[in-house]
Amino acid sequence: MFDQFEANTPLSKTEFEQRALPLRQRLLEAQFGIEKTNHPLIIVVAGLAGAGKGVLVHRLNEWMDPKGIETNTYWEHSDEEEDRPFLWRYWNKLPPRGQIGIFLGSWYTHPAQAHVDGRLSQEAFAGACERINIFERQLSDDGAIIIKLWLHVSEETQRRQLEEHAPKRQQNPRVTDNPYELRGKYQRALAVSEELVRGTQTLQCPWHIIDAEDRRFREVKAGEVILDSINRRLQFANDEEPATLLPEAADALACVNLDKCLDRSEYKRKLRKHQSRLQDLAWEAYRQRRSLVTVFEGWDGAGKGSAIRRVTSAIDPRLYKLIQIAAPSDEELAQHYLWRFWRKLQRDGRTTLFDRSWYGRVMVERVEGLASEEEWTRAFREINELESELTSHGTIVAKFFIHISQDEQLARFQAREAQPHKRHKITEEDWRNREKWPAYEGAINQMIAQTHTPLAPWHIVPGNDKLYARIHIIKTLCRTLEKALY
Amino acid sequence: MFDQFEANTPLSKTEFEQRALPLRQRLLEAQFGIEKTNHPLIIVVAGLAGAGKGVLVHRLNEWMDPKGIETNTYWEHSDEEEDRPFLWRYWNKLPPRGQIGIFLGSWYTHPAQAHVDGRLSQEAFAGACERINIFERQLSDDGAIIIKLWLHVSEETQRRQLEEHAPKRQQNPRVTDNPYELRGKYQRALAVSEELVRGTQTLQCPWHIIDAEDRRFREVKAGEVILDSINRRLQFANDEEPATLLPEAADALACVNLDKCLDRSEYKRKLRKHQSRLQDLAWEAYRQRRSLVTVFEGWDGAGKGSAIRRVTSAIDPRLYKLIQIAAPSDEELAQHYLWRFWRKLQRDGRTTLFDRSWYGRVMVERVEGLASEEEWTRAFREINELESELTSHGTIVAKFFIHISQDEQLARFQAREAQPHKRHKITEEDWRNREKWPAYEGAINQMIAQTHTPLAPWHIVPGNDKLYARIHIIKTLCRTLEKALY
Question: Is residue A403 part of a domain?
Fold first, then answer.
């Protein structure tokens, strides 16, 4: 597959300068075009050792305006990274809108290396390619321009390159491309590369294979590919994928029996019992290095806050973080909407509690028109993909929706306004949202229908009686943990 | 010292409720007051094992509005933390303005424990206290309300507490407070605690020692102390420290010989030579786990960008990050102005290049009136303290100011406007700043006079000839690294 690209077309210094000068100029213009149109640009520079990836990256930094470019390299892992889903380290380095992220070493490096060394089975490798395709599709759907460059060199060029620099490399410890390690591995590496490129060759995020034998040709070619891809994407920026048609939502909320209740003495007994059970399970999860992600959603006034407090007061403060999701910061607005949740994930063995979550996209953002139909329709799939990233890493996921009746909500709003130390909890907005009850009901039913998955199921909690709801939540959490840990 | 606090005044359930209910109400009001007045609130909960710190933290979370409270615990270190100056992990967890950070385990935990175990000498311990005082003073000067609670328990209460919970603790691995480890260490721990409290007892950030024998008393007392401290601080929020008088600034810029220059052939030869030298030194620094922080400042048009490019193209992309400092994001504006630089520090062995830096505070922010006189005067001391935090961690610091003449600047502005692919670099603002040359000159001279320290000296680079300036910078970097590494 790659051989055809060994065109071997070296450029003379003058040829190079003739093409490089205007190219440089137009690359700068393209860069400013990106800043204006607010697309993030992701450039992946991949290829075999000795293909001159590093040199090319230096050149790109030189040709474009370093303001707004960040080059990311992944070689030494940190335990912060090891302790989270594979994609976390990449999510955290994504360029904000209007800026450029160059990835020298990327989500491709680890699967490829592990497969070459035989540490990754054929199935696992195929799975990695699938997850990469999902990751790139999510970013691209969100407007990211993803340009994937594969620098190809022949075996003897690689040998020459590595050996020329061998002395310096001996002095400068490099990770991947130690010439002695690599000797004789070319064919195997090439075969894996072909698999990798084939497995992640998508219409949306295609690979560009570049003949890297000659430095000058390589650099000009890469620059032209980048320029061309940016311009093509900026032209078609407006075309939107048609929104996928969604099946009718079953009316999950209607099936909830809101009469469930609990008297205070029984509540106190059960609370003590299940809280201490939860405390031990949280420590057991810590011992097993399993993390727990819990999502709390519900109507305004459903009692999310007080229920969460009963959960947190059972867990050692060392083991959990409570994340309150409110309006995004401008750093968050400049990223894919899932970014702000990725960045908050705690390490293995810890619990992350989300008071409101990524589901805002398909509830409030949908109903209030803060997300376009294309965006919130796409979100169902993105959310399922996010949660399966978590569960496939070993994270335990529990999702609660606390449901109350419209009358109960009214009663609670009025009670809150009467109590001085609760008055702050009730705002004009709560009253406005209340008007839109039916719209929210429809959105919630569809949300549950679309995102109720075996590994990340929804638990719809009858919330008219707060005491019952709290116990129900803590017990469900305990059961979920027990099922996963024992 | 502590014994006097063993007042032993248990509260009955009713007494507790009588005091807790109104307290809770007023704590909430105080919390909203903070949100409005935009002070960050930092609550440190410290004390011996078995004093009930965790229980108190749970209670505070319950009493106040969990929105806008983050509880931080420090027990397991990550290598990301170990690889940076001691205070980095705390800077990164500081609450934004208007919000509350509760620190259960804090900058006090490690020095105290290490000193108890005899891993920290008397001198090192005193040094740690000094650095903590500086850290807290910087935050408090910036408006942070810092409340430090020390929970005191008697030896037998501690023993009872720990042994009561021993069985559960056996099941739930806890780090610091293993009852068996602690047995017999009480006196030693108490002595160290007294040293610690004395050594960090400042007027600005005083300790509040609380008799923690009785849970109810402890909680009410802590709540009252917090409430009282917040209210006192909010009243006096407006008083400003008088700006320290600064010595006349020597005219450092005038002493620069701007005629220095280099012809292109010599430039090329030297560039090749010193770049490869720099490349090796960067790898040597990596091998020795020493990090390098380089600051680039200079007049508009002084050629910072092109000089930085010559530096970066010498260093392996794996080893450096170039940080472009532009307008702060809203997450950054909600923090102490040094926060945005702390968060960008790279790991040990890496290079962090700042294109513009914390010196903006005493140049552009001062001249354009973006920082108050009190703020930029204070900044000189804060900057020196920041840099000594870095150097005392082993970081190598190099600071460059590229100086050019006013005529040279004019010539370059005009040249830039003539060149299409450079036009973007020159804006209205550049012309406006140019008007204020004398004001900037004064600020720069004072900056250099105030922040030219033995371990973090300024290098003023003659910049009229770009080629000379680039070589000068790379050579100086090499010398600095050689001095530090060999």
Answer: yes
- Structure tokens, A274: 């299940």
| Selected residues 41-70 of chain A with any CB under 8 Å from a CB in chain B | 54, 57-58, 61-62, 65-68, 70
| Residue B240 within a domain | no
CA B190, CA B209: separation in Å to the nearest integer?
13
DSSP codes, B308-365: HHHHHTTS-TTTEEEEE--SPPHHHHTS-TTHHHHTTPPPTT-EEEEES-GGGGGTHH
Q: Give the range of the structural domain holding residue B334, as residue numbers without chain letter.
A: 256-485
Which of A204, A235, A266 is where one domain is finished?
A235
pTM: 0.85
Residues A178 and A277 in one domain: no
How many structural domains compose chain A?
2
Q: Is residue B263 part of a domain?
A: yes
Mutate to test the interface with B, among A172, A281, A312 (most CBs of B within 10 A): A172
Are both A400 and A292 inside the same structural domain?
Answer: yes
In the block, tokens 């930085």 appear at B308
Backbone angles phi, psi at A443, to 5 degrees: -60, -40
Asked if B252 and B55 touch (Cβ cutoff 8 Å), the reply is no
Q: Is A317 close to B171, i.e. CB distance below 8 A?
A: no
Of the candidates A362, A16, A22, the one whose C-alpha atom is nearest the C-alpha of residue A214 is A16
Pick the residue from chain B with its C-alpha nearest to A322: B70
Distance between A49 CA and the closest CA of chain B, angstroms: 15
- Tokens at residue B277, please? 């030298």
Question: Are residue B177 and residue B148 in the same domain, yes or no?
Answer: yes
Per-residue pLDDT tens digits of chain A, which is 486 residues long: 676 666 667 889 999 999 999 999 999 999 999 998 889 999 999 998 888 898 999 999 989 988 889 999 887 778 888 889 889 999 999 999 999 999 998 999 989 989 998 899 999 999 999 999 999 999 999 999 999 999 999 888 888 888 777 656 555 655 444 545 666 788 899 999 999 999 999 988 999 999 999 999 999 999 999 999 999 888 765 544 444 555 666 788 988 999 999 999 999 999 999 999 999 999 999 999 999 999 999 999 999 999 999 999 999 988 999 999 988 999 999 999 999 999 999 999 999 999 999 999 999 999 999 999 999 999 999 999 999 999 999 999 999 999 999 999 999 999 988 887 777 778 888 888 899 999 999 999 999 999 999 999 999 999 999 999 999 999 999 999 999 999
Angle at B173 between CA B169 and CA B179, to 5 degrees: 50
Count other Cβ atoms within 10 Å, centred on residue B354.
21
Instruction: Give the gyration radius of chain A's Cα atoms.
Output: 26
Do residue A364 and residue A430 come from a single domain? yes
Is B313 in Cβ contact with A68 (below 8 Å)? no
Cα–Cα distance measured from residue A103 to residue A111, given in angstroms and rounded to the nearest whole number: 15
In a domain, A220, yes or no: yes
Boundary-marking domain end, from B186, B204, B235: B235
Residue B169 sits in a domain of what CATH number? 3.40.50.300
Complex ipTM more than 0.85, yes or no? no
In terms of domains, do A46 and A88 share one?
yes
Instruction: Please report which residue ranges of B360-427 form alpha helices under DSSP H.
Output: 364-367, 373-393, 406-418
Label residue A77 exposed, middle or buried (CB < 10 Å: 0-12, 13-18, 19+): exposed
- In this structure, the answer to whether residues B309 and B360 fall within a common structural domain is yes
Residues A29 and A130 in one domain: yes
DSSP-assigned letters across all residues of A289-312: T--EEEEEEE-TTS-HHHHHHHHH
Is residue A391 domain-shared with residue A466, that is, in the same domain?
yes
Q: What is the nearest CA distance from A255 to chain B, expressed in angstroms?
A: 32
| Contact (CB<8Å) B421/A58 | no
The residue among B346, B352, B290 whose CA lies nearest residue B315 is: B352
Q: Do residue B172 and residue A78 have CB atoms under 8 angstroms apart? A: no
